[in-house]
Design a protein that fits this description.
714 residues; 8-stranded mixed barrel; 23 strands; 20% strand
Amino acid sequence: MTAEPDGPEGRLRRFATIWSRAVFPVTSTSLTRPEFEERLLPLARRLSEALRARAFDAEAAKAVGAALVDAHCTDPDALSHSLDCVDAYLVLYCGEDGHQEELRTRCSRLQHAMAAGFARALRERTLAEQEAIAQAALQAQGVVAQALHASEARFRAVFEGAAIGIGIADLDGNVLQVNGALMRMFGGSEQTVRGRNVREWTHADDAPQVWRLYEELVRGEREHYHVEKAFCRPDGTALWTNLTVSLLRDADGDPRYQLALMEDTTERRLLNLRLRYEATHDALTGLPNRTLFFERLEKVLAAGENQRFGLCYLDLDGFKTINDSLGHAAGDRLLVEVADRLQSCATAPGEMVARLGGDEFVALTTGPETRCEVDELAGRIMNALIAPVSVDGRELTVRGSIGIVEGAAGERSAAEVLRSADITMYRAKSAGGNRFELADPEADARAITRNGLTTALPTALERGEFFIEYQPLVHLGDGSVRGAEALVRWLHPQHGVLGPDRFIPLAEHTGLIVPLGRWVLAQSVRQAREWRERHGGNALTGPLRVNVNLSPCQLSHPGLVQDTIDILEREGLEPRALCLEVTESALIGADDDLLKPLRRLAEMGVDIALDDFGTGYSNLANLRRLPVSILKLDRSFTQSMQQFPADPVDLKIVEGIVSLAHSLDLAVTVEGVETGAQAEQLRILGCDTAQGWYYARPGPPERLHELALVDATG
């Protein structure tokens, strides 16, 4: 049952509250004030009981004073505030009515007892703390001594047992102490190493900054430095190390010693040199490889203004044939022999031979004047290749094509120089091989442009950069427009409009000619349908016909016939409105498999024209087996007819061809008609149709429509 607020217990708690508020501010405790009040409440109760006891008990008050010390109320103000609180409020809240004087006297005696207990407890606590501190100090001294001994033992163990070399020297460079690892590195006794001065350990391969860093360290300007350094062993061999030198200072911060840590890297360096050699030299021939050659070339090109260079880029002619016929082992032996011969050609200072890969080699010469030297070097190389190479009992003739680039350093990058040499070498190879050519900037530019076009071709069709122009085909008898030849053009973003002679050979080389030819065929057939819808057709000759050129690659493509059928059916155009032109050279010696798709198309009603007739090895008897219905006579036969009088020999040749073609039921079309006299002469000779600038240049499809309308209206 709890006491009433104004009962004895409530008054006791008020006293405890007043006491805690007075003492708490000067108490070093982690308790909150309410928690501190709860701790004082039993002490207040004990004082209250001692105040009202029949016999005076001083020990109870002393115990309360000692309890204050245990509660961390050790500040002098804590005792003072406690005594003031007891003096002012203990009798008021804990005394009985009617005995005030007696209670006051007892309260004073309790205060004295409290102070005595507080003083005694505080003294005992202070003595205990001093004893603990003394014991701790003694223990700490023992620990320090033990730690110092252990530290010295550890240092000695580390110093002597370390795998890396350790040496200590004074600031004058005199070696004071070295460990076993360092002595083993130098291969000598401790006396031979300790008797040395650091400055005696110079080496020819020392970097310039090594001794500058050392001087800065011993002057106290640097705390440490790390370098790669070589030392000379007593036996004359080189010791390569990773060297770290640190400055040791005394307690006042003044420099006293230098500490050197050495890691032996000799074996690692030799391994790295071996790996570097293998990475920069050809495994088969032992010559420098592409990596090392480029490093050397870039260094030469970065030299001063007076430095010049000459480069010979060699590619063996017909090496693939040797590999394919005799095997790669024989080819490798041939390459080794060629490498030895080339190495013997480059013995002058500044000359270098390298193998770039395969059967490609380069020779480099440098100096202030290389114009003549590089020609002489190329000549020596060509002479060195004259003698046959004996491989497996066979005498193999070695031929090579060389591209030469010579110039001043700093004008071009290494990649540009090598590209120019490569282009020049292929120019020498195209000229028959077994020769050398000098680089020509204009030829380089053409080759670079050609390579750029080759690279851009695949995406040009996707971007819609191609378009078609049409050149009319005119009947020589009545002058009517019978159709047009479709001529593809490339609207290049940088080079403008390019004719087919600029990109068709590239398209054939890359295989893009098949999708490009399919696109041209589809566009041309669609245009022929539009002509039919707008112009109709002649009752005798039928609709306007479109002529589309076929390349040899398209002719051998298995999808030619089906692609043509699909395009004609999709556009709704009859086969007789389409003529496919095939060059004579593409059909020379053609077998039945190659002619089979042309025969199928001819049977469908598609006209097949033999283009550029007369430029190849014309076999007139062969015309009987070819599925052609039109001969397109090359302009070289009719150029003389542009002037009057015409060459009678050319007239006889054309007359004979026309007569033969008509006897085989073949129509004759003439290209390159440029004058009216030429057109009239061809008409007299019996040619059927013609095309050329005399009638119209290639142009947009609308122009053909206009010409056809003019022809229809007379």
